[in-house]
Amino acid sequence: MLDATETQETLLEVNNIEVIYNHVILVLKGVSLSVPKGGITALLGGNGAGKTTTLKAISNLLRSERGEVTKGSISYRGDAIAELNPADLVKRGVIQVMEGRHCFEHLTVEENLLTGAYTRTDGRKAADDLEMVYNYFPRLKERRKSQAGYTSGGEQQMCAIGRALMSRPEMILLDEPSMGLAPQLVEQIFEIVKAINEQEGVTILLAEQNTNVALRYAHYGYILESGRIVMDGPADELRENPDVKEFYLGVSEEGRKSFRDVRSYRRRKRWLS
Amino acid sequence: MFYREAGDFKTSYADDNQTFPIRFDRVRYYVVLAVAFGIIPFIINDYWANAVFVPFLIYAIAAIGLNILTGYCGQVSLGTGGFMAVGAYACYKLMTGFPEISIVLHILGAGFVTAGVGVLFGLPSLRIKGFYLAVATLAAQFFLVWLFNKVPWFYNNSASGQISAPERTVFGVPVTGANTDAWAKYLICLVFVVVLAWLARNLTRGTLGRSWMAIRDMDIAAEIIGVNPLRAKLTAFAISSFFVGIAGALFFSVYLGAVEVGEVFGINKSFLVLFMIILGGLGSIFGSFAGAAFLVLLPVLLKNILVGQLGWATDLAAHIELIIVGGLIMVFLIIEPHGLAQLWRIAKEKLRLWPFPH
Amino acid sequence: MLDQSADGYVTEDGRQIGGVLMEMRNITLKFGGVTAIENISFDIREGEIRAIIGPNGAGKSSMLNVISGFYVPSEGEVWFRGARRPQLKPYQVARQGIARTFQNIALFHGMSTLDNIMTGRMTLMKSSIGAQAIWKGAAEREETEHREAVEKIIDFLEIQAIRKTPVGRLPYGLQKRVELGRALAAEPKLLLLDEPMAGMNVEEKEDMSRFILDVNDEFGTTIALIEHDMGVVMDLSDRVVVMDYGKKIGDGTPDEVRGNQAVIDAYLGVSHD
Amino acid sequence: DLVFPSLSYRTGPYAAGGIPFADGYADYFTLLNERDGGIGGVPTRLVECETGYNTEKGVECYEATKGEGSLVYQPLSTGITYQLIPKTAADGIPLHTMGYGRTSAANGKVFGNVFNYPANYWDGASIAVNHLLDLNGGDIGGKKISLVYHNSAYGKEPIRTLEELSKKHGFDFKAIPVDHPGQEQKSQWLQIRRERPDYVLMWGWGVMNQVAIQEAANIRFPMENFIGIWWSGSENDVLPAGDGANGYKSLALHGTGSNYPIYTDIQKFVVDAGKAAGAGDQIGTVLYSRGMYAAMLAAEAVKKAQAIHGTGDITPAQMRDGMEALEISAETLEANGMPGFGPEFSVSCENHGGPGLGMVQQWDASAQSWSLITDFIGSDKDVIGPLIAEDSAAFAAENNISERCN
Amino acid sequence: MPEQLLFAVEVTLNGLMAGVMYALVALGFVLIFKASGIFNYAQGVMALFAALTLVGLQNGQIPFAHLINAIFGTKLHHFGWHMPAVLAILLAAGVMVILAILVERYLLKHLVNQEPIILFMATIGLAYFMEGIGDLMWGSDIKKMDVGLPQGGSFWIEENTQWLGFGNENFYGFFLDQLDIVATVIAAILVAGLVIFSQYTKQGRAMRAVADDHQAALSVGISLRFIWVLVWSIAGFVALVAGIMWGAKSGVQFSLSLIALKALPVLMLGGFTSIPGAIVGGLIIGVGEKLFEFSIGPLVGGATENWFAYVLALIFLVFRPQGLFGEKIIERV
Ligand SMILES: Nc1ncnc2c1ncn2[C@@H]1O[C@H](COP(=O)(O)OP(=O)(O)OP(=O)(O)O)[C@@H](O)[C@H]1O
Ligand SMILES: Nc1ncnc2c1ncn2[C@@H]1O[C@H](COP(=O)(O)OP(=O)(O)OP(=O)(O)O)[C@@H](O)[C@H]1O
Ligand SMILES: [Mg+2]
Ligand SMILES: [Mg+2]
């Protein structure tokens, strides 16, 4: 799955960061990762592992949640970005699609998309991009005049992703894009992700629970557990790793097991013991 | 490790449900009570009673009341002043109408009357939410004040339109009127505060309290899982108003002794009590006390420092006091939006971990 | 085709499913111009696990909202336990023994896990305001009694460690679990789950599946479930309703549904194993 | 030393009225210290405490200052006055509410330590009506007189008196309330425009005064037929309306303008010495004069008390005796550099309310000054006397007070 | 026409005008609420502060003179100039922009993503703070607002409507205050401008986005700082206009800050988020309270306006909980 656009140039470098919420809750305990330009990098891990926190630390949205990076550094194209405000970061081409949709409820779907183009100065092109987004998500076109607050969960997810695309980013931080989407849409969204990655050269950092799909599309993966990176490697290798297979992909030697059979056994991750 | 809870295990759910599950807290609480009942009454003088303790205690009652409505049930109210006025006037009418009955009952009666009025003005809350409701409660504020000002029956047709509390006694000791001793004023307020705070604590930790908080946090979900919003909101209005009414009654009869409704129970009062609970901490009984203490003490303190110690002109001092109070409100909110109670909790968490940072 | 006589059928794994518990008859739901549900009928039988699937915006969540009385259908009837249900307020529906979880987690953020679950028992607690104010005596006894029941649920869901944590701070997956606990606390006849496994990794999905199966098994609770993970749906459910654009396009056992061309076209995209 | 608390309000909605009064009160005592070395050789000390016109702060101020040996309280707000009536009675400190407060306190038999000389609200209402009688050759039968009042205890004070007077003199009386703060008075003034009363009286305070005068000018109500109480007659009230306010009248408790010898002294001993209170820019205004006048009356009472008790450093109780024996004669005024500034009167055990005299002043917008247009006018004691007796009797009954002075 | 009817018409007309005056204040609230979900309690104080600054500049008052004099024993009062009104208005508007920047920088920035009630509370703190500063800076005496606005009843209207009474002795023609007429024109311009701004421009859209979700707005690159400074500046300007109008009526003094209380029912009725709502709400409240005072007031002793406005708004809300034009409150699970 590796493809030609990926280079060795590192776009984003996260160096051993530590994040504390509310001055007391230590969530990230030294996370480092690097995202190569033009690649799709996946950040995997269970609930509460700190994926969202990592992404927010990068996009500088932590401050508004009373969290702060207390150690380590983050650099984008070699520049430290810790002191930038989120808007400047967007201007530099880094945009985040937040977990849990976060559409602007009272704005219509179309207005939501247009706010995505806020930082852009080429007004005309934005209209073309609107068409592009509608092509990707025809459902949005149908609902363009409804207030986003009244659209279904999946529609809101599309709206949020479409909104990010509208800013013509260089890099997208994508937080759980597949959450709540119908299976065929999940594929579709990942296809879109892949398309923008390949065609527009957008670098993508992806936080996902759906390890299966994520590893199919990503080039490289990091696995995060309780605020630490416990494993990383090229996506194909991770997919073949037996632990990953068992704990993240839900397949064991005998192939996929039924959810009905999970009843009575508990497992323990080898690396946590 | 100044603050420890380790080693404090509970063996029954009832134990786990008590107000201060941690022994350290419990002991501190009893010490405070002992000082409040056993020491302060003997050393209090007129100044401390009238300028600090009595208003603090009464505001604490009002703040607990408003906190039930706003902090626990999420219904922001700006009608506190009006409801306090109901309490005051109800108390006045009861005091003058049934002089042979104990003042304590009058005050409780005033609470019940206010609860009724509160329910009436709480009805729109079923439809109206958020700031719309807050502004709507101003209707109660303005209407009630107007009513008490306009209808002579409420002030027994006195020429001035003011109401004055006649002397009443509890166990033969005057608690209202000019001849009340400082300690008597203080003590009657203290008794009310302790009992009411205890009731509030019980109500907020049980089913009713949870239904309030559910409505506050997410009213639709609450309704879908089985909370009757009508009941939850109206009980919150009723109980909150009961507290506020008692605060109003005490404010009039014990603290001020004479009241003109527009001046004493105007909209500023509503805001003041709201400040107390926000600064103290929404949804926290301790916060109600902290907020009341802070906002009663701060101006007195500032005044004593600026005028008394530094000898500034009173007008400069008053302006600077405004600036400082306003500034402090902002600073506090920036440091800890969830109020003094939350600061206290964080401090405890820090102390527990001490000397380790995390 | 299963034998669907009036008094139930036996599932593949040999469980006895009872008579009709709830029946939706010709439900139509409109919002202004949008028709979210169009003339849909289906039933839910006692003891079964019934899945509702369909693409985003199909009207699944709206259907649950109709069942819980939050949306009033423009047309159609709801039958519960053999009688037509008049239009009830949501809390009255809850009192009839219908509990649910929500697609976008709707926990009470200001309260602890314990309090959230205790709130779920709201419908079962009876002590008067006076008794609660006094506390000592009746109220305390009742509280302790229900606390025990709640502790059982906490044990069952394995969330003992977060008993006293404010739910706002919990990671997503745990929040979902708490929400399930809150619904279970009401000891419902019928449990409605709206995407209980969205945003979870395989491991967590397995846990959640286990809980659902156990609830169904141990308490005999009837379950209606919306889910996008086909693996889960196929493995867990006894019968599946498929919706698309507000219409019902399929209804039957997982296998029947999987084979249905309309369902494949509208929803599954590729057929899923 | 002789302690005079000054419960001032230099902030809040009424600050504009509170500042000049407080300055005047303070400057007069400063003058006494600087020029005469105090009163009877004992220096005075002013303890100022900011109330913001707020009752609770008033209570705090009272409690904070009473321990310092405060001789007399001048609470300056009806609300605070009502607080202090019982409190001062219990503490044995006299209260002086000059031209405000509880009117029936004029009855010294019931209110032993409250004084409201030289005139009260009911006097004010009567003085205004008497002025109108003078203008109309003694007959105002059939005339329409409206009262625009602040909808509070203060504003309602004159209503009863005016009703009685309307019965007596046969004029049509109508009361029109304005709710606090009184920023918007369209309805009231449209009503006045419709009904065209011959005269409008006003019991206003704060912003209500300014708006009322502006609105009266807007509907072109003849300003000379518009008369305010003495709390509606300061420069603050008329200046914002500009030329429109020309001709507006108000009652005056005391002289106006700076043409009194005392101002030379104040300039010399206080202002030039850099000891003026506040910003020092209020000297000569109406409310400044009122503060000064109140201070002068207090100082005279101290002198009286010193004379009676033969001691310089008097106690509050002795001060009370001084106030009850106060006599203000033309000579006293003259001696204080305020000839003709206030009425001549004396206080007695029965009468704490003074003579009930007041003047009428009129605003000249071009000269930006008030000028007195009448001499002292008396009030109708036949009407007011019974009202006071009735109200104070009610108070006495309510509080189990037995009459003094018998 | 019968006399009572004529008077009722006159009362209605004046009610409309009064409503416009309320709407001027309400507009400021709406703007800030729309852009940040903040219920800006300080709006009234901002009007006072703006008016004080305007008058102070015009009369060449030295800011903080009293404080300076008290500390250094100087005798400063005036610079000794008299500034033309237009220049003073521009400068005062400039001061409001600076204020907006300061507010954003020292207050709002730190409160991103907080609950509305906390933000509301912070603006109350701000109100106190500015009240203190305003007093300290310009003094608490009453000042005359003189920017050359016409005032007083319009003769022209009075004369040209007298015939409506058809010889009725008691009817003198309609009374309309010229100041109110000017206010109406200004309000109309302001509203039209603001509606266009918020509905059809990029910044307007961004402003509404910010109101919905601070974090999401940040994440798409909207600079909260810029939007807030912008909106608070506009609100500051609206406050200045309101301050001028109300100041002309009553003189510039502390009570000016209380006009906020007249604006709240307007806001509630029109909807917190709707600019046209502020105007329509103002008109309804203005007419409603005046007519009520005119017809029912005499029966219940008058002075009903304060509470009636609120009760009227309350009744409206029971039927439309989001106000007349407010955005529908989205209730979903
Ligand atoms: N605002 C906050 N205050 C306190 N703790 C927080 C806050 N946000 C997150 N946390 C804690 O930080 C930890 C990591 O959370 P985070 O949301 O980053 O996890 P995640 O990997 O994104 O999980 P999920 O897959 O469920 O989204 C969790 O334990 C959570 O409880
Ligand atoms: N209250 C409402 N007002 C207007 N439209 C609504 C409302 N609720 C739902 N809708 C519309 O009805 C349709 C069905 O929504 P619903 O939430 O039921 O979809 P869903 O099947 O649950 O989708 P998803 O899987 O994405 O959650 C959507 O198009 C949505 O926009
Ligand atoms: Mg996450
Ligand atoms: Mg859904």
From TrEMBL, chain A:
One biological process term in Gene Ontology: L-amino acid transport
Pfam families, per database record: ABC_tran
Residues of the ABC transporter domain: 12-251
Gene3D superfamilies noted in UniProt: P-loop containing nucleotide triphosphate hydrolases (3.40.50.300)
GO MF: ATP binding; ATP hydrolysis activity; branched-chain amino acid transmembrane transporter activity
SMART domains: AAA
Record carries keyword Transport: yes
Keyword terms of this UniProt record: Amino-acid transport, ATP-binding, Nucleotide-binding, Transport
Listed name of the protein: Branched-chain amino acid ABC transporter ATP-binding protein
Source organism of this protein record: Actibacterium mucosum KCTC 23349
Automatic annotation (TrEMBL), chain B:
Membrane topology: Multi-pass membrane protein
Keyword Transmembrane (UniProt): yes
GO molecular function, one term: branched-chain amino acid transmembrane transporter activity
Name of a matching Pfam family: BPD_transp_2
InterPro entries for the chain: ABC_transp_permease, LivM-like
Record flagged with keyword rRNA-binding: no
Membrane-spanning intervals of the chain: 27-44, 50-69, 76-95, 101-123, 130-148, 183-200, 234-258, 270-298, 310-335
CDD domains per the UniProt record, alphabetical: TM_PBP1_LivM_like
Primary location recorded for the protein, binned into one broad class: membrane
GO cellular component, one term: plasma membrane
Entry keyword set: Cell membrane, Membrane, Transmembrane, Transmembrane helix
Localization terms from the record: Cell membrane
Name the record gives this protein: ABC transporter permease
Organism the protein comes from: Actibacterium mucosum KCTC 23349
Lineage of producing organism: Bacteria, Pseudomonadati, Pseudomonadota, Alphaproteobacteria, Rhodobacterales
TrEMBL record, chain C:
Gene3D superfamilies in the cross-refs: P-loop containing nucleotide triphosphate hydrolases
GO molecular function, one term: ATP hydrolysis activity
Domain ABC transporter stretches: 22-270
Keyword field contains ATP-binding: yes
Record flagged with keyword S-adenosyl-L-methionine: no
GO cellular component: plasma membrane
Pfam family, one: ABC_tran
Domain of life where this protein originates: Bacteria
Keywords of this entry: ATP-binding, Nucleotide-binding, Transport
Protein name: ABC transporter
Origin species: Actibacterium mucosum KCTC 23349
TrEMBL record, chain E:
Membrane topology: Multi-pass membrane protein
Record keyword Membrane present: yes
Any one biological process term the GO annotation gives: amino acid transport
Chief subcellular location: membrane
Any one GO molecular function term: transmembrane transporter activity
InterPro entries, sorted: ABC_transp_permease, BCAA_transport_permease
PANTHER family per the UniProt record, alphabetical: ABC TRANSPORTER PERMEASE PROTEIN, BRANCHED-CHAIN AMINO ACID TRANSPORT SYSTEM PERMEASE PROTEIN LIVH
Protein name in the entry: ABC transporter permease
Organism expressing this protein natively: Actibacterium mucosum KCTC 23349
